[in-house]
């Protein structure tokens, strides 16, 4: 071992903790959250089953097999099912969110673990263990270097999802400590996901969760059969955080310190609106203004105080955000979301069609929305609005 490498790496510490997780001893609140996630993702799969991006993903798979694609008659390989189901779950941006990352864990972990168990270990307790481990790992990874992965131009759900799915599947399949470490290390070379979809509302974010799910599943299977991954995948000179956060200095204790004793997954939230979570408090404010009788014609401008970390994704370029290119792009436009909530009284799936985002009444209000950065905004620890 090189003198410059740690005697016990972060991945090895995490593997030690993962290996002790037992579904039978999960706290009731954690067990309930995992069950809620399973129900939520199944509903989202059914909601999106006929959408064009889901059909394109399914048609693009040529690996038929025994695993369920939720809402479809066709079955695929475990990796194929994880890809399609994850894409369907995340595609409308209506899936769960962990504040502090932010990451969308259910859309990655649940399809990866369910497919792996359906194919290789059809056992309910094993699936619950895998979901608990995977979701907890993904949420905690988002706490190591808050905001830096997004700032570097990557999607934390995609990057951390591959690692966390590997952890979850490894736990579900009963891999030993060495196998878990290898799965994590292998997944580090599968992690990916740029955020250039923001430019014109392209579909690639929709597949990030599914791609991470199948990547983590494949990493765990490779490890199970002896493929070796780097044990310093997290903190290494050329490791995950160097590549995706441009630093190796992170709060690794947030990942491993009390893993298995305290479950941050219990704070995971389900969305009231199918759009970027950081816009939700502003939608709430807009709806309240409208409910109090404020009319669109009364508005000269709406000035929102925002966290600096949200600007490059949800506010800029401001002119484009005030007039989104398409329905999907509007999900990541706070001005549009505010205007839709104000004019229509709520924000739902029907507000993000290509036709809906051309509504002159909504666009007129969106044009009056701008922002200022609030240096005291607590994002990403909390999502607030003023």
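Sequence proposed for the structure above (386 residues):
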């Amino acid at each position: 071992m090189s003198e410059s490498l740690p005697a016990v790496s972060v991945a090895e510490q995490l593997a030690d903790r993962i290996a002790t997780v037992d579904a039978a001893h999960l706290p009731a609140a954690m067990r309930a959250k995992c069950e809620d996630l399973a129900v939520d993702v199944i509903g989202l799969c059914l909601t999106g089953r006929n959408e064009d991006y889901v059909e394109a993903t399914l048609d693009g798979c040529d690996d038929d097999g025994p695993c369920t694609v939720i809402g479809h008659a066709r079955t695929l390989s475990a990796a194929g099912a994880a890809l399609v189901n994850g894409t369907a779950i995340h595609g409308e941006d209506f899936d769960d969110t962990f504040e502090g990352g932010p990451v969308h864990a259910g859309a990655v972990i649940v399809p990866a673990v369910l497919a792996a168990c359906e194919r290789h270990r059809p056992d309910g307790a094993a699936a619950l263990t895998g979901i608990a481990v995977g979701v907890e790992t993904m949420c905690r990874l988002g706490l190591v270097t808050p905001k830096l992965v997004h700032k570097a131009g990557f999607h934390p759900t995609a990057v951390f999802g591959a690692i966390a799915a590997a952890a979850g599947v490894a736990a579900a399949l009963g891999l030993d400590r060495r196998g878990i470490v290898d799965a994590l290390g292998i997944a580090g070379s599968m992690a990916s996901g740029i955020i250039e979809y923001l430019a014109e509302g392209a579909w690639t974010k929709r597949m990030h969760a599914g791609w991470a799910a199948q990547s983590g599943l494949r990493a765990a299977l490779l490890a199970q059969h002896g493929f070796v991954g780097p044990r310093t995948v997290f903190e290494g000179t050329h490791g995950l955080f160097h590549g995706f956060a441009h630093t190796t200095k992170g709060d690794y204790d947030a990942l491993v310190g009390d893993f298995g004793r305290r479950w941050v997954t219990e704070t995971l939230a389900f969305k009231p609106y199918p759009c970027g979570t950081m816009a939700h408090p502003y939608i709430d404010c807009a709806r309240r203004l409208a409910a109090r009788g404020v009319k669109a014609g009364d508005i000269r401008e709406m000035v929102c105080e925002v966290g600096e970390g949200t600007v490059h994704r949800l506010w800029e370029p401001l002119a484009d955000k005030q007039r989104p290119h398409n329905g999907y792009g509007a999900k990541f436009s706070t001005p549009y979301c505010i205007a839709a909530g104000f004019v229509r009284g709520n924000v739902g799936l029907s507000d993000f069609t290509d036709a809906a985002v051309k509504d002159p009444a909504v666009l007129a209000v969106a044009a009056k929305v701008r922002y200022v950065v609030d240096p005291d905004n607590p994002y990403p620890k909390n999502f607030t609005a003023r």
